[in-house]
Task: structure prediction
Amino acid sequence: MDKLLRMRGIGKSFGPVRALNDVDLELDKGEVLALMGENGAGKSTLMNVLSGALVHYEGDIFIDGKREQVGSPIAARALGIAKIHQELQMAKELSIAENMFMGREKVGKLGMVDKRAQEEEAARYLEMMDLDLSPKRQLKTLRVGEQQMVEIAKAISLNARILIMDEPTSAISKAETEQLFRVIRRLAADGVGIIYITHRLEEVFEIADRLTILRDGELIGSVMTKETDRDQIISMMVGREIRDMYPKNKVAIGAEILRVEHLNLKERQGSSARPLHDVSFRLHRGEVLGIGGLLGAGRSEILECLFGVHPQNSSGDIYVDGEKVEIRSPGDAIAQGFSFATEDRKGKGLVMLRSIGENMSLPLLKHFTKRIFMDTQAEEAAWDVQMQAMRIKARDARTLCQALSGGNQQKVVLGRWLMTKPRVLLLDEPTRGIDVGAKAEIYQLITELAGQGIGIIVISSELPEIIGISDRIITLCEGRVTGEFLQEEATQEKLLYAATLREGASA
Result:
């Protein structure tokens, strides 16, 4: 019996850079194959070849035993290949239904787009994903996680035989992940072959039948999931052992640096921001405070309020070093020593077509200005210092951010804000979508910064991560604080229980 998919001897170069070298990949009908490797290992390049985004490549692709030339994304779709991108490929000004049927609109008898038919079919796929959303709703009004689930629903609507999922859970909650896994199992039972790219090792053991691992553009090997373990996978991925994923040095917790009392955020029509209700907490120098909770619990909104993003709709008292402060804009927040690395590093965190150095300088343009001219010598010296401190892997500070791996992009975001010499560092999903080796480096940076006396607040959807890097953790549910735990007493079970305690529920 022929394999559903065979890729043989796939090679791809970008100028002098060899991105793929003689890579083989196989996929059976009804199989979930985890494709793994660090950022830059060649996973995305290989899948771009398969999905028709890269048309000039070496090697052969066989589907059901027949050699095929995948010459474009349209050709890939005709062959039953669909890809869910890690970075959302959707038009946010359009509705959910319009996005779902973009490029394949349903047309009525008079040649006009049949919006009603599109919305009815879109509603069926949203229901399949257990998404309680109107297909008429504009995409821009949804949270990132909800947008990700809509894109998954769109891919499923294509009736693909080969479905490529690139980090599909990077911005969705645990409950949504469980629903996605149910959908994956149902699709696999129907004979769909699924290539699942993820950096979350716990997901691999839950959903994948087999793993194929790439490193530096080459195939390292394929193993059955039930015949391997976490240590072997990490060793194959990075070529070395990572014994401690959460390198947390002992740091003396200092005096209180931040106190938040009775923080509220009103719900506003047309805004995707979730309301907050009477949120209070404290942060100390050298402390890493984790914020846990399901998607939509209000975690990001806390950091946004602290950074002056919602001045018209928020209320409450903020104290820095014991003094009450007014933060009505990001400028006010920066002046008080706050720095904020958002979860959407490509959409909100970086200007991708600008260099590493230019991105780092953005909050400090006035600092590097002498009268009306930029002090380029001082600016470039600061770039070099920060690149070295953050261990950013690039030729120099003039490298464009779009050319960097996800982990190095995240280091640029952190490096930029550290140049402002913050007292309080706000990190929203700092390791989302980056590989296991880069995660360990980010964890090391966090613990080093805490050692310098910076107070750090971290949001993470990965419970092992939030436990591993935090000194103390608070949980949210529907905009309310529902629990507080020291690291040594926190468990995944306790955090998940507290994160689902709705108002009025019995503890």
About this structure: The radius of gyration is 24 Å. The CA atoms of residues 225 and 431 lie 24 Å apart. The first strand starts at residue 5 and ends at 14.
